[in-house]
Design goal:
By secondary structure, the protein is α/β, with parallel strands linked by helices. The protein has helices at about 5-20, 35-50, 70-80, 95-105, 130, 170-180, 205-215, 230-235, 245-255, 280-285, 425-430, 465-475, 500-510, and strands at about 25, 30-35, 60-65, 85, 105-110, 125, 150-160, 165-170, 195, 220, 240-245, 270, 290-295, 305-310, 330, 335-340, 350-355, 375, 390-400, 405-410, 415, 420-425, 435-445, 450-460, 485-490. This is D-alanine--poly(Phosphoribitol) ligase.
Length: about 500
């Protein structure tokens, strides 16, 4: 059964149903019931409208993290009828400025004084300590938001191969269709305590927020430092539902805390954003033996996830895969998948293409649509925006085994670093712009703990590793920075005269 057609309407329905008898949000010592959180969102929405000149804004930047302001603010932007444009306070200001301009943000909401300086748009600063007292005085009277299913709910910027982040707009109809299909999977009800592990600039956060609120659960927000010790955080916060990237399993293993039976409160564990090895899955399952374990897969363009794989309760029945990673499973109901080989022919192994109600309407900059869509017949598209029947090319190589999809890698130079999608071309383009650099290559190299790290090599003169690293740090978030930058007189070439990426990768591995 489908719910309301916009994201805020779905939360408002839960607020009506659960009132203040059920906690909707827990951040540190702050606990807000559903009705209270809705009231704060309404009052904050009125302040947003006032800050934008008494006219409801079209797009609002949300420059906040892990505070009551961040989550009430997310709802407030939707209540004002605007699109949420998440901005990460930890990212370099130059990158934030680029996103604000590209998204045509009209006002920024932040939880920290001075955080919005230099963005070129009005800034509304509401520290968490100032937000809670907003319940005093008469409630504001706001018109109903004029948003509908085809309007954009949120706009997330991902790494772009041309050197510029690209905006991925997700319509209300996309995210509402996702909630209709995914939220019922996890038995959420009042008393459920769900983790909020993702930053708001990562689309997994939308799952965290609205899957929790769809069923009357409590969204529990760990501090960033707590996420580095997942087992301790889960037990301290009494979590029943956990959703994160698989990399956090490695953190728990290195701490020696991932012991059998060490997470007795967990009923559901969900992992996504990068491949989950079967070895890591077994260790986590042993630590949470009373819970169920699931993998979600999907790029931002397909609204958080488009496939799912649920592990059998009996570990003896788990599959054996060619690459030792968990299957990504089968497509969510109502989605269609198509696998194409290198010649563009349907096959049992090849690039995964998807269409259906979770597929986004096309990039913010239509120039980024080129090469990413196929006609309903599976042929390359011409000019013009994609229709609902067009296929989205994920760039992921998969195979079918026993009716399930198994992820094999990429068809391009996109990588995942602790769940973050990175186009190596973005870093390479940025390095090539630096004085003295003639060419650049960035590669993903596995570290000693098995997790991938970025390493860069440039061909040039008059430039230093320190200077290049500093230049990257001025525009890139920390997760995109390479572990090291090597400067060479010449990069290795293959027999075709192209940069020998494979040979360079072997050199980097040997030199670690």
């Amino acid at each position: 059964m489908s719910g309301p057609g916009t994201l805020y309407a779905r939360f408002a329905r839960s607020a009506e149903r659960y009132g203040d008898d059920t906690t909707a949000l827990e951040v540190g010592e702050d606990r807000l019931g559903y009705a209270r959180l809705r009231e704060l969102a309404e009052r904050l929405a009125a302040r947003l409208v006032a800050a934008s000149g008494a006219v409801p804004p079209r797009r609002v930047g949300l420059l906040a993290g892990r505070s009551v302001t961040a989550y009430a603010g997310y709802l407030a932007v939707l209540r004002a009828g605007a699109t949420v444009v998440p901005l990460n306070p930890e990212h370099p200001q130059a990158r934030t400025v680029d996103i604000v301009k590209a998204a045509e943000v009209e006002v920024v909401l932040t939880d920290t004084a001075g955080a919005g300086t230099g963005l070129g748009v009005p800034v509304l600063t509401v520290p968490p300590g100032d937000l809670i007292p907003l319940g005093d005085g008469p409630a504001p009277r706001l018109p109903e938001p004029g948003t509908g299913p085809d309007d954009i709910a949120y706009l997330i910027f991902t790494s772009g191969s041309t050197g510029t982040p690209k905006g991925v707009p997700i319509a209300h109809r996309n995210i509402c269709a996702y909630l209709d299909r995914v939220a019922p999977r996890y038995d959420i009800a009042p008393g459920s305590r769900l983790s909020q592990s993702f930053e708001l600039t990562f689309d997994g956060s939308v799952h965290d927020l609205f899957v929790a609120w769809e069923g009357g659960g409590t969204l529990v927000v760990p501090r960033r430092g707590q996420l580095l010790s997942p087992v301790k955080a889960i037990n301290k916060l009494r979590l029943t539902h956990w959703f994160s990237v698989p990399s956090l399993i490695s953190f728990a293993s290195r701490l020696g805390t991932l012991e059998p039976g060490s997470m007795p409160t967990l009923r559901w564990s969900v992992f996504g954003g990068e491949p989950l090895t079967l070895e890591a899955a077994r260790a986590w399952r042993a630590a949470a033996p009373a819970g169920r374990l699931e993998v979600l897969y999907g790029p931002t363009e397909l609204t958080i996830s488009c496939t799912a794989y649920r592990f059998p309760d009996d570990p003896a029945a788990w599959p054996d895969t060619p690459n030792g990673t968990a299957p990504i499973g089968t497509a969510h109901p109502s989605l269609e998948v198509l696998l194409l080989d290198q010649e563009g022919r349907p096959a049992d192994s090849g690039e995964l293409c998807v269409r259906g109600p979770l597929r986004f309407p096309g990039y913010l900059d239509p120039a980024n649509d080129a090469g990413r869509f196929l006609t309903p017949e599976g042929r390359p598209c011409g000019d013009g925006p994609p229709t609902g029947r067009h296929w989205y090319r994920t760039g992921d190589r998969v195979m079918v085994r026993d009716g399930r999809l198994i992820h094999l890698g990429r068809t391009d130079h996109q990588v995942k670093i602790r769940g973050h999608r990175i186009e190596l071309g973005e870093l390479e383009a940025m390095l090539r712009r630096q004085p003295g650099v003639r060419d650049a290559v960035v590669l993903a190299v596995h570290a000693a703990d098995g997790e991938p790290e970025l390493e860069a090599a440039v061909e040039g003169t008059g430039c230093t590793p320190e200077g290049l690293f500093a230049a990257l740090g001025e525009r890139l978030p920390p997760y995109m920075l390479p572990r090291r930058v090597a400067v060479r007189e010449q990069l290795p070439l293959n027999t075709n005269g192209k940069i020998d990426r494979r040979g360079l990768l072997e050199e980097l591995r040997r030199s670690r």
